[in-house]
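Morning - pyridoxal-5'-phosphate inputs below, output right after.
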Amino acid sequence: MKTASSLALHGGAPAVTATLPVHHRWGAEELARLTAMVEQPSLFYWNGPQCNALRSEFQKTYPLKWTMPCSSGSAALHIAVAALQLPPGSEIITSPVTDMGSVIGILYQQLVPVFADIHPHTYNLDPEDVRRRITPKTKAIMVVHLAGNPSDMDALMAIAREHNLFVIEDCAQSWGACYRGKPVGLFGDLACYSFNEFKHVSCGDGGIVGTNDPRFGPTLTKWGDKHYDRVTGNRNPEALSPNYRMSEPQGAVAGAQLVKLPAIIARHVALGTRLLSHLRELAPPAVVFPAIDARDTHSFWFCLMRLELARVRCSRDEFVTALKAEGVQVQAGYIPKPVYRYPLFQNHNFFAGAWPLRESGRTTMDYRTVSCPVAEAMLADGFSLAINPAMTDEIITQTATALAKVARHFAG
Ligand SMILES: Cc1ncc(COP(=O)(O)O)c(C=O)c1O
């Protein structure tokens, strides 16, 4: 017999009945800038009005003196890593629960990503494990603020100061997030953001890197622009740099998006907070919520939580399948496995089957022996609930109800 508590998976009524309104991410503001842009004589980024407007808008939230708008978040991170000018074989400690974009630049600069484990409930770098992974070759920490939740910057910056390490902040997923009231990106030496399709703000693809550090600032644009010096017009590169320039159409859209950033973030925060407060009331068994420090702003790019598998009679994937049947926008885990488990790393297949750093003895890193047990466990039992500014409060309430229904059904 079907009852109100029967899972949709088993033919019961789905808990989420409200439909997601159509979401127009781009509109009049973007169109106005694009329309102005087509009157321009050039679409080149250097001193282009759109890219300059984007920079000024960015600096309202992130007062970083030197910036480079670029082609992606991965590009921003590569520029930041290159600007450090570290000797080949130097190590950068980062999280294994991140996008490939965090590590691509490290590898291309002939540096070694060293993966430290994460905190079980913030899913960000565990400062104590970072400390354990420091060697004489460690030169930097790349802090990834995952899903919108700020990392423990007090602890990480203290470690960096103690060991004389640079800090790059990967804020791709954390537009609008604040640590102790201050936006993420303003703690380390260099800050990187993404405007890819899936981020809080987007121009399809794009990124921006910024710094207040005079050691890096004046050359920042060179590291993403073939090492040409646009200030003097001098094309006499003294270092190797890719072309990661943004173009004016991207700048126009990204600039308009940043005007809307406070409203977009406010909506993400409101939805994420509402979801978690409903869930706390419903107390679904075996579901463990993310840890968020009350002094911080989690900007809820998505909402990642965990399932205590020992307390349910189902696998994580069965749980997620049941949630989907209820109409919940959810996915299993975040990435399928920690980054070091990708075949690329397991086979050290960085440069056509070779890794010159290892073959030349500049590193002994063997990714087959790397282990970050907390990251492994979290990716095996975690699930991500989508937060989309088009969502209505009703959808959020129904999502919480669905989660409680499914968790109660499977509670062992
Ligand atoms: C944490 C993190 N870092 C870096 C990137 C790379 O950004 P992009 O896709 O713009 O290159 C992403 C994108 O998903 C990300 O989530």
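Note: The pocket of pyridoxal-5'-phosphate is lined by residues 72-74, 98-99, 101-102, 144, 170, 172-173, 194, 196, 207 (CB under 6 Å).

O.
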